[in-house]
Amino acid sequence: MTLVKETAQAGKTAGDKKSELSTRIRASFQQLLAFASLLALVLFFSVASANFYQAANLSNILLSTVVTGLLALGTTFVIITGGIDLSIGTGMTLCSVMTAVFMTQLGLPMILGVLCGVVFGALMGGVNGLFVAVLKIPSFIATLAMMMVAAGLALVISGTKPIYTNEVAGFQKVFALGKSIPGLVIPNAVFILFAAAVIAGLILSKTVLGRYTYSIGSNEQATALSGVNVRKWTVLIYTLAGCFTGLAGVIATARLNSAQPAGGMGLELQAIAAVVIGGTSLQGGKGSIIGTVIGALIMSVLTNGLSIMSIPQEWQQVAVGVVILLAVYLDMMRRRQSAK
Amino acid sequence: MTNHLLRMTGVNKSFPGVKALSDMQLELRHNEVLALVGENGAGKSTLMKLLSGIYVPDSGRFEIDGREVVIAGTRHAQELGISIIHQEFNLMQDLTVAQNIYIGREPRVGGVFLSERRMNRKAQFLFGKIGIDLDPRARVGDLTVAKQQMVEIAKALSFRSRILIMDEPTAALNDAEVATLHALIRNFTNRDTGVIYISHRMDELKAVSDRISVIRDGEYVDTVSTTETSMRAVINLMVGREISGNQRPDAIPATDEVVLKVTGLCTKALLRDVSFELRKGEILGFAGLMGAGRTEVARAIVGADRLSAGTVELGGRPVRIPSPAAAAALGLGYLSEDRKHLGLMLERDVKDNIALSSLKMFSRMGVLDNRAMKATASEYIGKLRIKTPSSAQAAKNLSGGNQQKIVIAKWLVKDCDILIFDEPTRGIDVGAKEEIYSLLNELAAQGKSIIMISSELPEVLRLSHRIAVMSGGRLTGFLSNAEANQENIMELATQNIADGTTGTTVHTAGAQR
Known about the structure:
Chain A has 15 helices and 2 strands. With 340 residues, chain A is mainly α. With 513 residues, chain B is of the alpha/beta class. Chain B is 32% helix and 25% strand. The radius of gyration of chain B is 25 Å and the shape is globular.
């Protein structure tokens, strides 16, 4: 028996150890590249305009990343499973409306209202998950449909008018613009984003749900044949993503102290762009939360920097589009190189 | 009567339109490696899927150690001690070795969090016990095919299996890896366990099995002792008719006309200075071990890979071939090795697949002539004995061997003058192999020129007029069919290039020019 092992044992040399390390480096390459690009952009804009590298502006950048960033965090899970969620933009709007409704028309205390908003998002996610996992509707179609439904419901429930939450004491302060950390000029919303990112990262890398996210994305059939209840876990994954959508809706309401029922459409594509720039593959099986965060930051740094340089908004959109193309192309090139 | 490890009787299974298994029976004894053989479409795959809980039988009785069991799903089959290693691996490429093995039962901390360290330790312990060398933290997608199979085996063995089913385990392994696998199998088999080994390779069955069970067309035929039965007899049981083996090519081509001349072919990755000629009406066999560079030569010639040096001449004229499409336009066709992924549109039907490379032939002003396509498809379904209910059947529903026949038909329709067949009968059963062989001979007799790459030496000897042998990216020799045998081919195929000696070419009159 050991004959087999002995002859094979000889193979594991220092060379193998070295190639192990270089494989790990190559695997994180996309993240390193994304981070380097972020730094390069910051550097570029700092040089190009004196107004960029100011505390107030940087704080602005972070604040503008929050809503898209939260959506991107949640949808990272969905994309790693090989699916896509087009409903997160209008879904966020619906959650925003529902949070306002919970707190004003239903008179729930603030914390409870916020919690209900998040749970509502989770429920929407769960419905998406059921369509995809149980009814076997392709995620593109199922979430596209949900996107329309959510947009419509937001208008219906709100009566097509904004719902103001000024009467809810402290809402805007606690969940958006207040600066609760002494000594720093960073608004609370930003801390919520980073806390959410840490939690998302832990879930993805250290829990069973995270493991199955990668597994389903890598080979759904093999995962099912290995005895994992793929249906159940897919529903749970979409539900988790929905929590982030709900939270994004809460923060969106808090920022403006009102729920705007007509917005949201288009945010899903920005969130997906952030995820892709960060190195997550749309084919599934690969990705990370750190990458998503960096991707979201790259997008906001880009739009902020361009507008500080007085580049018109239309051109900003062109720039973002080009960045997405570059990021995905570079990723494909790198993938092809490592496959050789 | 002693109890068998596994016994099934009266098993029936039907799918819409086809009865896959009819009154099937099988017996696996303790401490036994039982080979299961049958032509493509005989029902082996269905049988295995029933045993592993993927399908549910329409009727039948299953017994393990004499006690009746009803297999209720894949998890249950695993719990009963039945593990199956499929032909196509069920691995998640982006996960690590240990993550794949323990998927669904990962060691946890606090019920929700994973303990990666404990899992890797468990895996390492398992590998030590079985005696294989794997890194638990290696990403499966980065491993060789042989190593990936080791992962599958380790996974199966980690379930404390008693019945191990292996479906064509050596299709992608070289000889050393096959030996390792057989050692593992012998190690696994003891008085509590048994192995069902499905394979087309007769020499392997002789090497590793104790008995051989034969099934045909969904029915049980017989079980024979390996040592007491000749392979010829087994093959006859499989096909139900006499097969004559050990033949040699029918005729030597009379022409000297060189249709393809390759000089000094090099690629960045592997090939060094490959030169040869192909004559009209000739079948030139390419032999060598896996990784010798035969597929690379084919891909380089048809333009699928870039040449770093070398020239190609067709009919005496030097040509530049930038892509397989250009090659096809020049009358040079290539049937790739991995037909399922590189040769078929699985979602389309047989008719569309067969017509794919020749759509221009079937279209008038851009519009397709469906009736002509159907007629051509029927013609080739008959010629190649493709087992399909009709030409409208989706390609993905056919068995592996029949899928390959569709790809062959596709290129035959294209009417290329030079054809490169890469492993033409991989996964094709014995009966159908004969048809492919006579087809190749027919094509050569019609004046087509064929390069045949094959890892099965009997096949190479059976068909090739001349044999080119490769090793380590170089051509190590040419042999005429008369002088070639398995030994001298092997010798040339294992010639060591690393020490700088260039390959010796074995010359006899008329062998190489």
